[in-house]
Structure formats: structure tokens, C-alpha cells
Amino acid sequence: MRVKTGLEILFQKELGLIEGMKVGLITNYTAVNSKLIHLKDLLISKAKVDLVAIFAPEHGFWGSAQAGEYVQDEFDEETGVPIKSLYRPAVHAEGPEYVVDSIIAKEARAPLTESLEEVEALIFDIQDVGTRVYTYIWTMALSMEASAKLDKLYIVLDRPNPINGLAVEGYVLDVRFKSFVGMLPIPMRHGMTVGELALLFNEKHRIRADLRVIPMDGWERDMWFDQTGLPWIMPSPNLPTLDTALVYPGMVLFEGTNVSEGRGTTRPFETIGAPWIDGRNLANKLNELNLSGVLFREVRFVPTFSKYAGVECKGVQLHVVDRKSFKPFLVAICMLGEVLKENFNEFEWIKRPGREKGYYFDCLAGTDKIRKALEEGSDPFELYEEAQASAQEFRIEREEYLLY
User: Fold this and answer.
1) How far, in Å, CA of 251 to CA of 262, rounded?
2) Distance of alpha carbon 267 from alpha carbon 319, whole angstroms
3) Distances, alpha carbon 156 to alpha carbons 162, 202, 386, in Å
4) Which of 4, 64, 225, 378 is most buried, judged by most C-beta within 10 A?
5) What is the pLDDT of residues 1-46, one digit of tens each?
6) pLDDT tens string 293-316
């Protein structure tokens, strides 16, 4: 049986919720039904509403902007409806802030008050990937706050967590490291849908928006995206496949280092490397760890952009051979440990942009424990056990917000 998304349920039986209203969308190109028709077009053709604004997250409405690239306002070519960017520079006296520090300037990531004046209801529909550092859920949280302040109806059209709703991994965010890649205390792999997260944010973290979640029909927690019967629309430019989404909750940590995470290749996040890594040795060391569900292979690649653009990198590709037993967060910290051990003089943690102190890696990890422990040569498996104790506490806390 094919899963029906919140979008499809809205048009099947919930249109009365917005009939006659002035509506704003927080969305991008992923908000399509099973026939690949976009929410915007469905509202215009089938709903008795006035579409007055569209708000676009990171990567823009069409997903054409790379990670971290600011997105400009534009107009929808067909309707003339303004598309307002929710990924704008946050300007301060000392100059623009980089995205990771945008939490200190929420006006750059949430709809501006004046852009919501006409809007009576906001509808959020974006495909998420189930990982804390993926910014769409923080766009949702900030726009929920904006709607709460102005007493607007906020509707979330639920979609599947593509990497299932059972597995929970990684440290719960330490709020000392909050940023736009992690604003509220949830683990790296949270195992929730956007609708469930909206409920958690609204109630546990007291956003108090006038929230309505339209659940899916037919989705179960143990489902992977390729079991839903829905078309895969890549959620962002560097997450082309479900395989990428699966490794992402761990491999994204390499963004916080001077090791390429495979951006600028056809296998981002599945390959890592640098000019100074011995790929064969690294693959052998990692395979000797007998990590569940994964094998490693020596590779060489030349990124077309991002780190080491135009320079040959040596490293490894991970091949997931059993996705049920594969633990992306554990695998990533084991990989980081081996790379650091074998390349101590070349390896670097990337500094937090715009700050004299602090590391971007800690924002991604949600803690400084991983960085410090790996520098001291600690056992990654013991580190993972500690992280999972944190994740288990969250697993219990999230229960009351689960819809499926």
C-alpha cells in the first residue's frame, strides 16, 4: 500500500481548514504529491484560498543554491506571488553573520512580521531527512515562533522520515553549541517526522503556535523511504539518494574538518578524503573494526567544488551492505578516529565561522565531547555508548509526540 502524505490528506479531506483564507507556504520543490504535482499548483487549481506568499528555506525554492549560499527574494513566474527567502544574511554592526551563527539573528531565518501581515494561515511542507543538522526543521521552528507571535494558524503537512522512525543515534544537542544546524535539544538521528517534531517543539519547548499537523496515512515507523511507494525527490543538492540520507547522520561530521566529505562528487557523504590520506591503509584499518552493515573501499576523487576543488583526494567510500544494522553515527566517529590517528599533523577541526573561539564541528556534533575524546585517543565505541545513553533518554521523552 502506498503511503499518503499530509499534502494528499489535506486535499482529500481537510481543505475546509483553510477555505477562504489568505495562505502563505513555507516550502520548496519537494512538496509534491504522488503524481509530482506541487502544493502551490494544487492550491491554485483545487482550493478556495488566496495564495499571498511563499517562503523558501536553505537552497531556495528550486533547490539550486548550494549549502550555505544565501538565497535572494524572487517572484513565482506563473502567479507573481512573492517568494521570500528564509536564508538571508543576518546583518549586524560588525557585518554579516555566517549561517552557523544565525541563531543570534532570527530575523534572517524566519518570516519578517511585515511579510506575514496579509497571511492568515502558514502551511509547512518540505521533505526532511531525519537528521538534526538539516536546517529545514529549524526553519520550521523559527517560522512557528513567528506565527505564534502574530496568532496565525500554522499547518504542517507530514512526510516520511526517509531513514525510518525507529533508530535514534547521537548526542542530544548541548544548547551551549546551538546554531542553525541545531537549535533545540534533539539527537543527531532523531527518528521523528516533521509533524512529530513540530508537536515536540510546540509543546515541550513552549512555542505555543496555533498548530495543526495533518498526519500521513499508511506510514509505519519501521519504513524506509523506498518502501513508501512515493517518488524520491532529492531533498537538497548534495543528498541525491536514499543511501546518502542514510549515511548523512554520521558523515556530516566531516563538514567540521579539513577532510572532504565528498561534496563536488557524485557520491557526497559516501566518500571522504584529502590529498594527504593513505586510502588503502584507512580502508584496511576500518574494515578490521568489523563495523556492522558496512564495508570500506579505497578511492581517489577530484572534487569539482568545495574542499580541495580540482585537487586529487585519496580516501575511502563506505558501502552499506545491511542498512538495518548500520549505525551511521558510530561509523563516522570511528572513521574520524582513524583519520586523526594516522594523520595527526595534517588533520584539522574547522573553526566556527565568524568567531574567534569554538569549532564548527562541535555545532554539528552538538557537543565538544567527541572532538576532545578523539584528540585524546579515546575509544570511539565507548564514546558511542555514552552518546546512545543520551539518545535513549530522548527516545523516552519523544513518546508522547509520536503520531505513528
Assistant:
1) 10
2) 11
3) 17, 12, 34
4) 225
5) 799 999 999 999 999 999 999 999 999 999 999 999 999 999 999 9
6) 999 999 999 999 999 999 999 999
* Structure confidence at residue 103 (pLDDT): 43
Up-side HSE of residue 189: CA atoms within 13 Å toward CB? 27
121 and 24 Cβ atoms separated by less than 8 Å? yes
Give the integer Cα–Cα distance in Å for 404 and 4. 13
Identify the burial level of 325 via C-beta atoms within 10 angstroms of its C-beta, where 0-12 means exposed, 13-18 middle and 19 or more buried. exposed
Where the chain has pLDDT below 70, the residues are: 90-107, 354-356
DSSP 306-368: STTTTS-EEEEEEEES-TTT--HHHHHHHHHHHHHHHTTTT--BPBPTT-SS-BHHHHHHTSS
CA distance 403 to 156: 13
Distance CA 319, CA 10 (A): 39
Find, among 185, 173, 139, the residue nearest to 363 by Cα.
173
The closest alpha carbon to 319, from 304, 340, 298, 347, belongs to 298
210-235 exposure pattern, b = at least 16 Cβ within 10 A, e = fewer: bbbbbbbeebeeebbbeebebeeebb
Residue 356: which CATH number? 3.90.1150.140
Q: Which three cell numbers stand for residue 185?
A: 535539544
CA 372 to centroid of chain Cα atoms? 25
The answer to whether position 65 is within a domain reads yes
- Residue 397, in any domain of the structure: no
d(CA 316, CA 85): 37
Domain that holds residue 19: 6-232
- The span from the CA of 38 to the CA of 78, in Å, is 13
For residue 197, being part of any structural domain is answered with yes
Report d(CA 121, CA 380) in Å as an integer: 47
Read off φ and ψ for residue 171, nearest 5 degrees. -65, 140
pLDDT of residue 109: 86
The answer as to whether 389 is a domain residue is: no
Nearest one of 73, 198, 64, 71 to 128, comparing CA atoms? 198
